[in-house]
Amino acid sequence: MYEANYTDVSEFVFLGLSTSTPMQHFLLVFSTLFYVTIVTGNLLVVFTVTVDPYLHSPMYFLLGNLSFIDLCLSTLTVPKMISDLSSGHNTISFEGCVIQIFVLHVLGGSEMVLLIVMALDRYVAICRPLHYLTIMSPRLCVLLLSGAWAIGLIHSVAQLASVVYLPFCGPNEIDSFYCDLPWFIKLACTDTYRTEFVVTANSGFISTGTFFLLIISYIFILVTVQKRSSAGLSKALSTLSAHITVVVLFFGPCIFVYMWPFPPVPGDKFVAILDFMITPILNPAIYTLRNKDMKMAMRRLSSQVLSLRKIS
Q1: b/e for 126-142, b at 16 or more Cβ within 10 A?
Q2: In the predicted structure, residue 265 carries a pLDDT above the cut 60
Q3: Would you state the pLDDT for residue 7?
Q4: How far is residue 99's CA from residue 114's CA, in Å, rounded to a whole number?
Q5: pTM of the prediction?
Q6: Average pLDDT value for the chain
Q7: How many whole angstroms separate alpha carbon 272 and alpha carbon 256?
Q8: 102 near 156, Cβ under 8 Å?
Q9: Spatial CB neighbours of 224, under 8 Å, sequence gap ≥ 6
Q10: Confidence of residue 271 (pLDDT cuts 50, 70, 90)
Q11: Does residue 109 contact residue 156 with C-beta atoms inside 8 Å?
Q12: CA dihedral sign of residues 181, 182, 184, 190
């Protein structure tokens, strides 16, 4: 029987995405440009939704929080990858790895629930437009958002509770650019079959179940709209297409990584790039370039900034 605090491993070594020097240089430029875009785009969405009174509605409140979570997800992993690529120091402390896993699952679980809340918001807006502001009251939005964060926290604590006491006695190379449970558990010096099952059941089936729940909810909305008006169906499709795109891009990598996580396959780390670098860019692009209210709000914001510069 292993002692609860038994571990000889003080740090882990990331093998990264590639050992080729030219490829590493390309990844450094690629990840830096994408991260700057992620920070700029998502901060712009959060700032615009916060300061523009015309956007103080449930939909944009939820959108601002989605951008905040996406920004946090990218910041959790991408700056470390950029630092590793530029310095060649590809290590992370044992405690840092555990913290990264914990925060990753808090944010991931919260975003899953938040996407369900956004689907509920779209259902009420499309199917119950006259009662929209009454149903989606500010109080309910805050409660739903708090529930999303609470579920994310519970999910993460449940995941870590099953792995935090695993013994680590030597192997410390993680074939990825960030810490996550499939690679972490693989390095434990004990039989991890039960732990693998718990992780698969918790993350794999939760992400898969949430994904299908969202798809079913969108189908239900479209069927409801079609019964009322064929003209309204095209408008609903236009509104929901952005949500469906985000859902597929977010849940696709999650299902791929966690549904069959043991042993992790080499493609996992490349698929994860979608969640950390691609989806966080598409979110602000989809919700701003295709949304008249957001574009008008950004024009008002830019006009105010220009007027302030002229005054100064």
Answers
A1: bbeeeebeeebeeeebe
A2: no
A3: 56
A4: 22
A5: 0.88
A6: 84
A7: 9
A8: yes
A9: 126, 127
A10: confident
A11: yes
A12: positive
